[in-house]
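Deliverable D2.4 — example input (structure tokens):
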């Protein structure tokens, strides 16, 4: 017991010293963080020096004085305090993530406006998030139709912190690019594209991938139901259409996640993980989009929750033209996708 108390004394002094150095020498911490840290070190020091100091408090909560009862009480209160700290840290991290995302988008939009002052109204915008797809983006852009159902089409490529020559390829093909200074994820890139398209008075926004898996010539299939007034969101479905399987585990995941989303939304969904879709621009403001990466299920669930008319149409998905997938490994992808589904459904 003496050795444990000695360890507590040493740790409390070290904690106090580390906070002091961080706050006054290396970086300035928030006053609240400093106060919490010093209170923790003081409490630990008191318990180590005077083990009975909190006996009255523990007795009030029916913990026995001394021995095992005191230890159990201290462990319970310390765990409760730890939960509060962890929850507070998660809230702060979420706030920081949102602020960083907004900052990156605003910087990219400001730079975009400077480079493209001759903005023109276009009814249909195709937004393509791209991260190091220099080998594929050119082929995709060449397949984008100039108009759909007689409506002009404009393409916005959101270069999401790429380290290759994607922007140069986009410029050479006379398309426009929005540049993220750092990589923020496919959903964050799409959000920037959405905002720019809305600034340019878009009426319909189509999204597709930059790796060549989606076929731009199928854009009319997605846009048609919106033009005809049948739907607000048209979701492309490889299950209703056809697709080339490149990973058996991911193919099984498609089936599982479709089942999960269908159960949660009480709507039959055949392809919740496909990014080839079209949405009526006026309906975007109704959706609370927070994801930075796993955006396909979020937008679909949000649309169903907010009462948008959702329709699925058959489309084709091919293997990527070249290069490697930017998606995380299968298990980590499955975990992230599951969290996105549950968190979107719960809010």
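Example output (designed residues):
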């Amino acid at each position: 017991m003496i050795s444990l108390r000695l360890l507590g004394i040493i740790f409390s002094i070290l904690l106090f010293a580390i906070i002091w150095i961080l706050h006054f020498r290396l970086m300035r911490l928030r006053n609240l963080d400093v106060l919490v840290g010093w209170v923790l070190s003081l409490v630990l020091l008191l318990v180590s020096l005077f083990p009975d100091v909190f006996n009255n408090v523990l007795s009030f909560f029916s913990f026995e004085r001394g021995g095992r009862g005191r230890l159990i009480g201290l462990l319970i209160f310390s765990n409760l305090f730890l939960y509060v700290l962890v929850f507070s840290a998660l809230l702060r991290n979420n706030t920081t993530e949102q602020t960083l995302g907004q900052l990156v988008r605003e910087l990219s939009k400001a730079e975009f406006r400077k480079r493209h002052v001759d903005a023109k109204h276009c009814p249909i915008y195709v937004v393509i998030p791209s991260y190091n797809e220099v080998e594929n983006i050119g082929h995709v852009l060449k397949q984008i139709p100039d108009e759909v159902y007689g409506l002009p089409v404009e393409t916005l490529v959101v270069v999401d912190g790429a380290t290759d020559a994607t922007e140069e390829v986009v410029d050479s093909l006379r398309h426009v690019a929005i540049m993220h200074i750092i990589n923020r994820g496919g959903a964050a890139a799409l959000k920037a594209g959405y905002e720019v398209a809305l600034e340019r008075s878009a009426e319909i926004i189509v999204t597709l991938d930059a790796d060549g898996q989606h076929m731009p010539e199928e854009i009319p299939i997605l846009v048609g139901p919106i033009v005809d007034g049948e739907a607000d969101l048209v979701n492309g479905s490889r299950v209703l259409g056809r697709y080339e399987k490149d990973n058996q585990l991911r193919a099984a995941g498609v089936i599982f996640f479709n089942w999960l989303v269908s159960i949660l939304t009480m709507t039959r969904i055949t392809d919740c993980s496909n990014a080839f879709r079209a949405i009526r621009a006026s309906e975007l403001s109704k959706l609370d989009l927070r994801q930075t990466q796993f955006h396909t299920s979020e937008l679909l669930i949000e649309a169903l929750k907010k009462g948008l008319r959702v329709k699925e149409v058959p489309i084709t998905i091919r293997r990527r033209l070249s290069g490697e997938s930017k998606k995380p490994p299968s298990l980590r992808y499955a975990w992230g996708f599951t969290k996105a589904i549950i968190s979107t459904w719960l809010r």
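Residues 2-98 form one domain.
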